[in-house]
Amino acid sequence: MFGIIRPCRHRLSETMRTEWMAHLCGLCLALRGDHGQFARIATNYDGLVISVLVEAQSPRAEEAAGWRRKAGPCPLRGMRTASVATGEGARLAASVSLVLASAKLRDHAADGDGAMARRPVAAAARRVAASWDKAGARTGSDLGFDTALLVDAVERQTGLEALAGPGTSLTALTEPTETATAAAFGHTAVLAGRPENREPLEEAGRLFGRLAHLLDAVEDLEADAESGAWNPIAATGADLADVRRLCDDAVHGVRLALGDVAFASKAQGRLAHLLLVHELPRAVDRAFATEGCGHPGHGQGHGHAHGSASGREDTDVRAAFGPPPVMPPPPAPP
């Protein structure tokens, strides 16, 4: 599982843990429901924030029956049933995650990574990516969201990277990521019927995208140097202290932007606040290995001082919501 927002279970109350899992499982099942079983490999921690934001803004979410459904036993939940998020928020999260994951799949095929060094496998991967693009676009269209914004951002990223060199501004390279995540965050206000929230949420999304891009680059810095993979920090010669300042400023900006968002109620906004205000600073500390969780199993830092947390070579717009599609799909609940 991938994403920069990875809250340790011991920091979440039982209520918040249940809500967080409801959105994670809801994203996974929305991917399966709209796009098929294999699409579930696009499930990721950051994508569920889209679902959380839609629900947090919508007065209709107070009617729990319309926003939750009971899902059957799943091996990833220890064969337990669960109440999972459903509706437009989960579907938008699925659409965004799928389109960005399709771009990553094409990149792996183009680069010949792993099994994709074999032409038949790479050809099959490209066919899957094409089908995911179309499927994600269909779902986005149903929700009034134009996924062409995401595809355009991915395409522009490659050109920006080709022109980058020592002295290039990191924010020039993070711009496509910022644009994509701003659009996704902003559309949650549209789905929730809260147009007044669109502007602050776009700002929060823009800065979230900057963080996703930069933290991914920090975590992969040493691994990319060893493998010869392109990394924006190395390519621009940026100082890590400057990168840290950019990240801290983005965290502060997200907090300020979220303060201007009108949630349906304080209780409904609690999970969004926890993830975007409390967990983002921890994500920065984790990436820079300046803080570790003392809970068993979470004690090691994941930053450049300890190597890459994910082993990814991608440091671009696709890092925001799309994991590399190299995992086998999880079993379907009965």
> Class, according to the CATH hierarchy?
Mainly Alpha
- How much strand? under 5%
CATH superfamily: Farnesyl Diphosphate Synthase
Walk across the major sheet and give the strand order: 1-2
Shape: globular
Structural class label:
mainly alpha
Structure description:
The protein has 334 residues and is mostly helical. It has one domain: Farnesyl Diphosphate Synthase. Helix content is 57%, strand content 4%. It contains 11 helices and 2 strands, in the order H-H-E-E-H-H-H-H-H-H-H-H-H. It has helices at 14-35, 48-57, 88-111, 119-142, 148-163, 170-191, 198-219, 221-227, 232-236, 240-259, 270-287, and strands at residues 68-74, 80-85. It has a two-stranded antiparallel sheet with strand order 1-2. Strand 1 (68-74) and strand 2 (80-85) form a beta hairpin. Helix 1 (14-35) crosses helix 2 and helix 5 (148-163) packs antiparallel against helix 6 (170-191). It is globular, with a radius of gyration of 19 Å. The protein starts with 13 loop residues before the first helix and ends in a 47-residue tail after the last helix.
